[in-house]
Amino acid sequence: MRSAEAGDTSARARILDAAVLRFARSGFRASVRTIAADADVSPALVIHHFGSKDKLHAACDEQVLAWIAESKRRNMGPATSGRLLEVLAQTDELAPLVGYVLRSLQAGGPVGKAFVEHMIDDAEKYTAEAVEQGMARPSRDERARVRYLVYSSLGSLLLSVTMNPPKDPEDVNAAVRAFMDDLYLPMLELFTEGFLTTRRMLDDYLLYVSDPPREDDDLTTSGIR
Amino acid sequence: MRSAEAGDTSARARILDAAVLRFARSGFRASVRTIAADADVSPALVIHHFGSKDKLHAACDEQVLAWIAESKRRNMGPATSGRLLEVLAQTDELAPLVGYVLRSLQAGGPVGKAFVEHMIDDAEKYTAEAVEQGMARPSRDERARVRYLVYSSLGSLLLSVTMNPPKDPEDVNAAVRAFMDDLYLPMLELFTEGFLTTRRMLDDYLLYVSDPPREDDDLTTSGIR
DNA sequence: GCCCCGGCTGAACGCCTGTTTAGGGTATTG
DNA sequence: CAATACCCTAAACAGGCGTTCAGCCGGGGC
């Protein structure tokens, strides 16, 4: 994992690499001094090259997004749709990116947002193909379904590693895989067989949205202020 | 929302209430000085009563868990299983708790952990009943399924509010409801009709776990170090 | 009257943060 | 050889943090 072109040993590149790694390991509250120490450099130099910590963060985001785009272009196909994180986790060079992406999802940063949107766009494409080929059921609202699928898979992963963080931040990737292993069966079961035996709740809801009750009835008891 | 008994206007109670509210609004990095100002009290008094910021945080956690337990005892039934957050959001007095719980989920704190475990326990009970009554399909691993359902619903909610935080932290509850509205149809669709049309992936997986390939083949290419 | 006592505060301490400043060291250029 | 330009650092600054400490202030007991 190297900045711009491989083998760039300039101090600037060393700082950027160290920052991405440190942010992934320790979160975005890691101090400039720590990053400087990681890169064997003075704190002042970090500021000198990037202007401020926020700008360093932004540069890291940009770099990570570029790496992800590159990885997608090279490694992704229909077979790995929705498993971008796993692909990243399996590429040694890019393994730290998983931690970085998770931190960004947790912090709501631009990388997190972009990552979610990428996944939604990809998933929309691939599920459309799956529906065409008769592998997946059509939905009443394809976009909403895709958003739901992406949010629940990424969200559950995020929640899982937040609740059970690996002792060594080095092990996020192992934690990601453990999580996937644990929850793969119920997910597959749900996707294949569903959960409810009766259509009643769905039909009731469809009826409800096509003929909703008067809104103000609701609002007075909704708890919104 | 008052500590211990309603109408307790002692400084200690005022501080605790202010802290819960401030933590919910601004996250757990809110400063002792801010909380003290909210409670119209000196920062020193906060420490005097609670010993340290960490202990204040712990006291808030305890208080919130007590409120939640109380609310569950009074308001929850089979009909609202899995919708604890919505019930909280609709009880004006307890509305700030939603924000607090979300912050705890995000930070991985004890309240978050406990909340997840409560939801899993409740959901396990209610899905068992649903299966008995023929409303839900049985699972090959009930506990794993329940965990999956709780993690994906709470996780997707957490991710959603992290990615699209309300401008005014006062509006988390509205955001929660908006999220539920958006994703209710795809969820219901998935639960009722499933996603895949073919059993092949599930059957392949079941075959795979009953006769797994040699492990070391995998490990060498798994990217774990 | 006095005293003591507990709730409470203003001011300070020590630490850590991001950032600035002034200047040292080295290599390139005239 | 001297001068300039650039990379880099040590030291300090300003501000925020959690926390401590000495002491104020009002009420109850003697």
From TrEMBL, chains A, B:
<dbReference type="InterPro" id="IPR036271">
    <property type="entry name" value="Tet_transcr_reg_TetR-rel_C_sf"/>
</dbReference>
<feature type="domain" description="HTH tetR-type">
    <location>
        <begin position="9"/>
        <end position="68"/>
    </location>
</feature>
<protein>
    <submittedName>
        <fullName>TetR family transcriptional regulator</fullName>
    </submittedName>
</protein>
<keyword id="KW-0238">DNA-binding</keyword>
<dbReference type="InterPro" id="IPR041484">
    <property type="entry name" value="TetR_C_25"/>
</dbReference>
<dbReference type="Pfam" id="PF00440">
    <property type="entry name" value="TetR_N"/>
</dbReference>
<dbReference type="InterPro" id="IPR050109">
    <property type="entry name" value="HTH-type_TetR-like_transc_reg"/>
</dbReference>
<dbReference type="Pfam" id="PF17933">
    <property type="entry name" value="TetR_C_25"/>
</dbReference>
<feature type="DNA-binding region" description="H-T-H motif">
    <location>
        <begin position="31"/>
        <end position="50"/>
    </location>
</feature>
<dbReference type="InterPro" id="IPR001647">
    <property type="entry name" value="HTH_TetR"/>
</dbReference>
<dbReference type="InterPro" id="IPR009057">
    <property type="entry name" value="Homeodomain-like_sf"/>
</dbReference>
